[in-house]
Fold each of these.
Amino acid sequence: MPEEKSVYILSTSVVSPQASFEEMMKEPANYNGDKLTCIEPDYTKYVDAKLIRRMSRIIKMGVAAASEALAQADVQMPDAIITGTAYGCLTDTDQFLTRMVEFKETLLSPTAFIQSTHNTVAAQIALMLKCHNYNNTYVHRGSSFEAALTDAVSLLEEGEAKNVLIGAADEITDKSHAILKRFGLYKTEGESLSLIDSNTKGTMAGDGSAFL
């Protein structure tokens, strides 16, 4: 029988409505209403200021969380980068579709389209690291991260990789929030700390990025 390999989590990092994993366990922030707001870090610590201006919010959140996770684990170059997302880069998708209508499908800048694809976050991380190793993104709505995690564990157990950077990122925009709200997905007066014990329909909209 092949030797069984152990899989360990070396580090974790998150950009979310909570300041950090550590703060969330000690004293979690409480939110009311139908939407959570991310506590975003100083992105200049992770990305050159010139590049930040060209990045959408979800890309900045993903790059920051990934960079912090790599730094904590003292890993310079991962053997694989695997991400999961439910909706991908909604802001850039919205911009591209809006410009298509406004310019009647002529003279369109390709930037928003290029950055609207679901694998943009993983691709941007790879470009910054100059990483040419295995790179994959899963898009299976609520099970996207589980699929990415399964892929990562498989690579590690099969000896195809030693260190894998895995994460998930999603964003809520004003338009996507308004559309999903019509389906009764969100509570009008939710409270984040008691949300899990609620017996009524709906949740609170949230976004962010987590990497390990």
Amino acid sequence: MTDPARSRAAVAGLVDHTLLKPEATPAEVAALIAEADALGVHAVCVSPSLLPVQAPPGLAIAAVCGFPSGAHQPAIKAAEAADAVARGAGEIDLVINLANALTSDFDAVRAEIAAVRAACPAPVLLKVIIESAALSDAQIVGCCRAAEAAGADFVKTSTGFHPAGGADLHAVRLMADTVGGRLGIKASGGIRSAEAALAMIDAGATRLGLSASEAVLAGLPQ
């Protein structure tokens, strides 16, 4: 018998259906939303310049912030996040300043996350992208702790744009162990099969960032 938690519908409910290529057009976003509705996913994730969008009830709208480099001043990130929320985003995926993480300046990591959190308070969901593939284990742990201290709702592995790579099982497990269920874990970057998606969930992911959502979900039982 199929485990209901591993069914197509259950996994779809964890998916942020994502379109973040720089040349994405409003017509492509409309197609993304239609596909998301048909697949039954949790959310779509788009660039803030493409907001507002028309979406069916029940489909969350996420926008990225400081994407993809994270090398923006905290005040700019805060303003970008607030603007995205004003134009319909209910979830913000924030890229940290990676230099702060690589130098283990976790006070700076926490401070910029807190600035964005203040600009988009709950019930907006704040997901913090740490680029785990570029970090040591100690740096991953430090970033997760900083995100929790700053009031984030999720920590997220990757933008999918960094040359170091995307999500991997070790990082997801480490992130999940660090936050202990107090924050969600979003695995994103390079997840292109049902097997990979299930492995990420087994490792502790509670949300999946997918651009190949239809192909991934097609590999799961009804």
